[in-house]
Specification:
With 479 residues, the chain is α/β, with parallel strands linked by helices. Helices cover 38% and strands 21% of the residues. The chain has a seven-stranded mixed β-sheet with strand order 15-18-19-14-13-21-22, with helices on both faces. Strands 10-9-8-11-12-24 form a six-stranded mixed β-sheet, sandwiched between helices.
Length: 479
């Protein structure tokens, strides 16, 4: 289902400049296809085109932008199986998870199409005193200008969509750098955008090496940088971004609390999904599971048994849960962190091994808090168990992290739920479910090292626009 080669998109047009980027089937290790790589000249041309087309984008009416987004929705639906298969191949994502991501891609563009014609404004009452009795005002949102997007490997469709769709909704031209390990989803989105009436220069999708992407960050013609990826890279980019707005969606090591009144069967079934869907390669995947001591042993027994039952293998098989991780380097790092934790005194309850890119679904307990396994973002198929007796101490344990993306709490006590919402230093608290839960209209993002700003179409629209005020004075005789 894949083509032999794919172009990049420069100013809305496909350019087969070369076939320098090999896309590897993460399960077989073989080259699946080849993609054109952009050089610094192409990136410069894409930014220049976005800058030049901005006046034309400003002239587009909301209904025209909505029609573009609705066309994308229709074409994504028609190419559903192709999108899912390409994602399965390039990312090694199990096919059921790949289909789920295509569904979210469609949802994200649908939400953007709805919001494109509902961008808010407000009438202001300015006659607050006799001095201002003849004045009134109103404000509207206007697009900030050309935007720069850098998307990651783990959700190459939907996380690109969370940048592209709101930009189209408000009328911001953009240049996008997809992850070089997983460029195909963004390229197919480019194919579909190229079918529309967007003015030339409205978009460029330019795979390139990290060291060739400096202009995505530093060029002053770009008015917003939206980056999803590692904290180390994200904060470095912010420091070099100059005057432009910056939105960062970075990493996490999400925790979930399971209180003693929780439905254990339900909690196990949800946390299995939260910890191991798409082989754990998600920034809100469950990494730390904090369980009340009164139910700890029962939960552990059921959770370990459910983990052992997960099938590891070919991601193209419908019943595969654990496919290959993204690269040999990442697999090696995961193995090293698990070994480090075991050597420091942690107990491996199941898993703990890897072969090539295949890392077993792993559960550990008694993991020391100073190990990488506990402190850092594992970003793979592993979870660690700990127990608590005091609920406040459990909340403190969740907060004992430099990350703060989302957290989950299984409790039937509304007061404990509300306290978690008040106390947990994270961007979102999910009650009765895992922190991995996300709907694409939610305000999504983190605090501390997990990022800056919020995704979710409405909230991205706020970032991609500025408020422009108009004040009207009624002169004497016109009142």
């Amino acid at each position: 289902m894949l083509k032999e080669q794919y172009p990049y998109y420069l100013a809305n047009k496909p350019v087969q400049a070369n076939t320098d980027l090999e896309v590897i089937d993460k399960y077989t290790g073989k080259v699946a296809t080849r993609v054109a790589m952009a050089d610094a000249t192409a990136i410069e041309q894409g930014i220049a085109a976005a800058d030049a087309v901005f006046p034309a984008m400003l002239k587009m009416k909301p209904y025209q932008r909505q029609e573009i987004l609705e066309h994308c929705v229709q074409r994504f639906q028609e190419r559903f199986d192709e999108l899912a298969y390409s994602l399965c191949v390039e990312a090694g994502k199990p096919i059921k998870d790949s289909r789920g991501e295509v569904t979210r891609l469609i949802d994200t563009f649908k939400i953007a199409a709805e919001d494109a014609v509902n961008i808010p404004g407000e009438v202001l009452n300015l006659d607050r005193s006799a001095r201002t009795k003849d004045y009134w005002g109103m404000w509207k949102r206007v697009p900030v200008g050309p935007c720069s997007f850098i998307s990651p490997f783990n959700f190459p469709l939907n996380l690109a969509a969370h940048k592209i769709a709101p930009a189209l909704a408000v009328g911001c031209p953009f240049v996008l750098k997809p992850a070089s390990l997983t460029p195909l989803g963004a390229i197919i989105i480019g194919e579909i955008l190229a079918e529309t009436d967007l003015p030339e220069g409205a978009f460029s999708i330019l795979p390139c090496r990290r060291d060739g992407a400096d202009l995505f960050t530093t060029d002053d013609r770009l008015k917003l940088l939206s980056f999803t990826g590692s904290p180390e890279v994200g904060w470095q980019l912010k420091a070099r971004a100059g005057k432009k707005k910056v939105v960062l969606e970075l990493g996490g090591n999400a925790a979930v609390i399971v209180d003693e009144d929780a439905d254990i069967e339900d909690a196990v079934s949800r946390i299995i999904i939260g910890a191991f869907y798409q082989s754990g390669q998600t920034c809100i995947g469950v990494q730390r599971i904090i369980i009340h001591e009164n139910i700890y042993d029962v939960f552990k027994e059921k959770f370990v048994a459910a983990t052992k039952a997960l099938k590891i293998g070919d991601p193209k098989d419908d019943d595969t849960w654990i496919g290959p991780v993204i690269s040999e380097g990442e697999a090696s790092r995961m193995e090293a962190w698990m070994n480090e934790a075991a050597e420091a005194g942690a107990t491996v309850l199941c898993g703990g091994k890897r072969k090539g890119l295949m890392v077993e679904a792993t559960v550990m307990e008694n993991v020391p808090r100073d190990t990488n396994m506990y402190r850092e973002e594992f970003f793979g198929p592993a979870a660690i168990l700990s127990k608590f007796s005091d609920y406040d101490a459990a909340l403190d344990e969740v907060n004992d992290s430099r990350f703060g993306l989302q957290a989950g709490v299984f409790t039937n006590d509304i007061y404990k739920a509300h306290k978690a919402w008040d106390v947990l230093d994270v961007g979102g608290v999910v009650i009765g479910d895992v922190p991995s839960f996300r709907v694409d209209n939610m305000p999504y993002g983190g605090v501390k090292d997990s990022g800056l700003g919020r995704e979710g179409i409405r909230y991205a629209i706020e970032d991609m626009t500025e408020i422009r005020l108009m004040v009207l004075r009624t002169p004497p005789g016109k009142q």
